[in-house]
Specification:
Structural class: alpha/beta
CATH architecture of the largest domain: 3-Layer(aba) Sandwich
CATH superfamily of the largest domain: NAD(P)-binding Rossmann-like Domain
CATH topology of the largest domain: Rossmann fold
CATH class of the largest domain: Alpha Beta
Distance between the termini: 65 Å
Shape: elongated
Largest sheet: 6 strands, parallel
Low-confidence stretches: none
Number of strands: 14
Helix content: 40-55%
Mean pLDDT: 90
Number of domains: 3
Oligomer: single chain
């Protein structure tokens, strides 16, 4: 049985570990953060991802998944070392120091009697694979790259909320190497034998080629997301219905429906960072990616336009500009950038909340199923927001809605679809010249259902 060590048990690492156990391998899990290992000891998932917690419990009980604080022993006995340490800094840009340090520890721990594949699963910028491989050449004089080990990049696009399915049933497997190592190829085919058996295509190429494939795919998706949001703007102006427009566009088999969904803007770990890095990498090579840059600017402008739209709705509904002395409560539904995840990094919700809190007379009450006052993960919310006197995380969606002057839907959690709209109307404040206001950036309701509200969505008729 192949023995695999996974270093880093965050989102990518924990998903990789349980999926590799599912393939039938023995997996050892290591993390520098002892609190994560303690959570594993208590059969708790290290990541808020559907299916991971159950899989961790199952594989710990069977003995297929174990953990250790001795990285040397784990690496020395492993056939494959999967590295999934974080490469983000506080500004959501690449910080490779942790990855370089981990690679160094791994190479210094390798056996000189058998081959070990070092597989980088974490996201890295274009050009990083070659640099990492070159940096390992002089760490050990008794082992050689290509004979005793290989540095392999194996990026995957794991969508938060469906990461296990994406790992087990990928559209393609990308494998980057710096040489024509037969050992690297055979090891990766063995590790992914279950996937290979289902005829999923494998791409074996240079580090740079694989890095561009991944970044290019995310950049293209970002363009699609920014584009459909702008089409929704046109629909709002001319009276067309974005839902019908989207179905019509998506029916063209050359385009398809994926990512043609309106939103307050793209966020999360991969999209904003990857498109920025792709743009910056191009500029360093003297290439101007004007389409990618336009998608970045479009997304930034869309998020920045949300606060003014909220303020305009509040002003118009009350017939005049809001007096500074009178408090207004804004209910924000959804903190994560998408449902089924607690990832709030570069989430449009946080940008909007920060903008709103700059107004002294605005209170913001936020609700998200995975962020409640009793949960430790609230520490992920930036301190400037979390500790602001006008901000509050609440326990239920109706707590957020109660006595609010406007409800803003930012994340399309299923819980919001099943809201008791009669109860919502009763709980909300009633403007003197209008119906209760709901601003829906996810188009979760049809205008017909929302006749009791001043309902504003993207690219759909406005109920007044």
């Amino acid at each position: 049985m192949m023995v695999i060590t996974v270093i880093g048990c965050g989102f990518v690492g924990s998903v990789s570990a349980v999926c590799l156990c599912g393939f039938g391998f023995q997996v050892w899990l290591y993390d520098e953060d002892q609190t994560r290992l303690e959570r594993l000891k208590n059969n708790a998932s290290p990541a808020d991802e559907p299916g991971v917690a159950q899989a961790v419990v199952k594989h710990l009980a069977s003995g297929q998944l174990t953990f250790s604080d001795n990285v040397y022993n784990m690496v020395y006995k492993s056939d494959v070392v999967v590295i999934a340490v974080p490469t983000l800094n506080k500004n959501s840009d690449f910080d490779m120091s942790n990855l370089h340090d981990t690679i160094r520890k791994v190479v210094l721990s390798l056996s000189n009697t058998h081959y070990t594949a070092i597989v980088i699963k974490t996201n890295i910028p274009v050009g990083a694979g070659s640099i990492i491989a070159d940096n390992t050449l002089f760490l050990r004089t008794d082992i050689k790259l290509g004979k005793h080990y290989d540095i392999i990049t194996n990026p995957g696009i794991l969508r938060e909320g469906s990461a296990i399915q994406d790992f087990m049933e990928p559209n393609v497997v990308l494998v980057g190497t710096g040489n024509e190592s037969t050992a690297a190829k055979s090891t990766m085919l063995k590790m992914y034998a279950t996937i290979a058996a289902s005829k999923v295509p494998f791409v074996f190429a240079s580090y740079e080629t694989v890095e561009i494939i991944r970044a290019g795919a995310i950049g293209f998706l970002a363009i699609k997301m920014a584009y459909i949001n702008e089409i929704a703007d046109i629909c709002s102006r001319c009276g067309a219905d974005i839902n019908t427009v989207t179905k019509g566009i998506a029916s063209d088999h050359r385009i398809g429906p994926n990512s043609l969904r309106v939103s307050p803007g793209f966020g999360g770990t991969s999209f904003p960072r990857t498109v920025r890095v792709l743009s910056n990498a191009a500029k360093s090579l003297g290439v101007n990616l004007s389409i990618i840059d336009a998608a970045i600017e479009s997304n930034t402008s869309r998020i920045a336009s949300i606060k003014p739209q909220i303020m305009k709705l509040l002003n118009d509904a009350n017939g005049k500009a809001l007096p500074i002395a009178i408090k207004r409560k804004v209910a924000i539904l959804g903190l994560s950038f998408k449902p089924l995840t607690s990832d709030i990094r570069e989430s449009p919700s946080l940008f909007v909340i920060k903008d709103l809190l700059a107004e002294e007379h605005i209170d913001v009450w936020a609700y998200d199923p995975l962020f409640k006052s009793s949960r430790n993960k609230n520490q992920c919310i930036p301190t400037a927001i979390r500790e602001h006197k006008n901000f509050r995380i609440v326990e239920s969606v109706y707590d957020a809605i109660s006595q609010s002057d406007i409800v803003v839907i930012m994340t399309n959690w299923n819980e919001f679809i099943s809201l008791d709209l009669k109860k919502v109307r009763e709980l909300m404040n009633k403007p003197p010249y209008s119906k209760p206001i709901i601003l829906d950036y996810r188009n979760m309701f049809s205008p017909e259902r929302m006749k009791a509200f001043h309902y504003v969505s993207q690219g759909q008729p406005v109920n007044t």
